Amino acid sequence: MMLPKHLFASTLYRPFHTILAVLLLALTLLPAHAQDTYNIEVSPVGLTSIPIALPLPLLSTGLAPQFAQSFRDIILSDLSYAGIISVLPEQAYIADGHSAEVDYRNWLLIGAEFLVSIELVLDGADIEGRLRVHDMALKREKANVRIRGRFDDHILLAHEIAGRILWEVSGIKGFFNSRIAFVSDRAGDGKQIHVMDFDGRNLLNLTRNNSINIIPHWVDEANIAFTSYVRQRPEVFVRNLTAGRTSVLASYGGTNTGGIVSPDGRYFAVTISRDGNSDIFLLHRDGRMFKQLTDHRAIDVSPSWSPDGKHIAFVSDRSGSPQIYKLNVETLQATRLTFKNRYNTSPSWSPDGKKIAFTSLENNVFNIYTVDENGYNPRKLTEGTGHNESPQWSPDSNYLVFTSNRTGEYKLYIMDSTGTFQKRLPDGAGNNAMPSWLVFLQ
């Protein structure tokens, strides 16, 4: 029985009178507990792997020797989620990685394309990471940077250094200091909104209302919009993480779902069914009605903004089955983008504007596809690994976070934009779904 798919990807498309029943059914039948496992690497093959040498960090006076290993371990863990870097084992190193004069021949001999050396210097309550990256092919120093932070936040410093390493050797921006909001049933008290750091640390339970709370979306670094049934029907709320305060954003007649902030931060895109049929509307930041975007007898749901704010991708069954459409926000002209398979939902527009990721039902299995923003070049990213749903892009459009039940329960995963590399995130117990990714660019 495919219960979680009803809870997650397909929920927003279904007519309202079935939504609550399905959610409650899923809530009742989903397992209450889970045997947690971490870091299940699914298919780390096919990508070009960049071999680097990363000796233990050099420490200044005042730092315990074991600190170097724990700091390096954080960086190794971070880089494992990029899928394109292989760190050569320290046992293979035949030269001093911290020498002022780099012996490129010895590092080339063991297959390193880059030598990454880190020195950690304690300065009162602060710690400074001095990072040097040497390019073996060019036989020169590629980067020499210093990154500073509070010692108590040295994990954040390690994440930032890992991101800088990824950038220097691959040109891909790091995402290791990011946060993820998601829905979880881990406590057995309904579906609650949680937030965690990318590495699973600093888990925060935002809602504790013994109800159903779904579709979290970051508004900014301090606010998350989400849909809740806490008042017996779906309404959109905004939770301020700093103040710990929750306010109502959308409570019009019928159902209210979504709450996707526009790129300029001025409006929210929401789905409202105040006349019994779901259409997409724009609201001002304070929840006042601004503009109706769709007015069709079909069901229109799940808006996702283009990065320039001129278009919205959404789901409509106006062709007879749920498909992905693109709407011009100014002219309100809608263009169908998907034609493969009869059930396509959960669109997510890439930040570079080039692609839209979505969930597609094929042979009773949900998988994640991408399609060009003009509807060309549909591409399947997941296959043969259970149900895969709810894709959300990283800010540089190189990765997606998504939900999969490939190990039984629904868990959060990351994959590259081709789907070649996929790996589970340390998201903890229970069914975890509907991720929303907030990344602090480095």
- What is the percent of helical residues? 10-25%
Radius of gyration (Å) = 23 Å
Q: How much of the residues is beta strand, in percent?
A: 35-45%
Contiguous helical run count: 5
Low-confidence stretches: 1-46
Mean pLDDT: 89
Number of strands: 30
Major pleated sheet: 6 strands, mixed
What structural class do you assign from the helix and strand content?
A: mainly beta
Q: Roughly how many Å apart are the termini?
A: 43 Å
Shape: elongated
What does this protein structure show overall?
With 442 residues, this protein is mainly beta. Helices cover 13% and strands 40% of the residues. It is built from 5 helices and 30 strands. The strands form 7 sheets. Strands 1, 2, 3, 4, 5 and 6 form a 6-stranded mixed beta sheet that branches. The chain has a 4-stranded antiparallel beta sheet with strand order 9-8-7-30, with no helix packed on it. Helix 3 packs across helix 5 (154-170). It is elongated and about 70 Å long. Mean pLDDT is 89; it is low at 1-46.
Using brief descriptors, characterize the structure shown.
5 helices, disordered N terminus, 30 strands, mainly beta, 442 residues
Briefly characterize the structure.
The protein has 442 residues and is mainly β. It has helices spanning 3-7, 16-29, 65-80, 104-109, 154-170; strands at residues 50-53, 58-59, 85-87, 114-123, 126-135, 140-150, 179-184, 192-197, 204-205, 213-220, 223-228, 235-240, 245-250, 256-261, 267-272, 279-284, 289-292, 300-305, 311-316, 323-328, 334-336, 343-349, 355-362, 365-372, 379-380, 388-393, 399-404, 411-416, 422-424, 432-438. It is 13% helix and 40% strand.
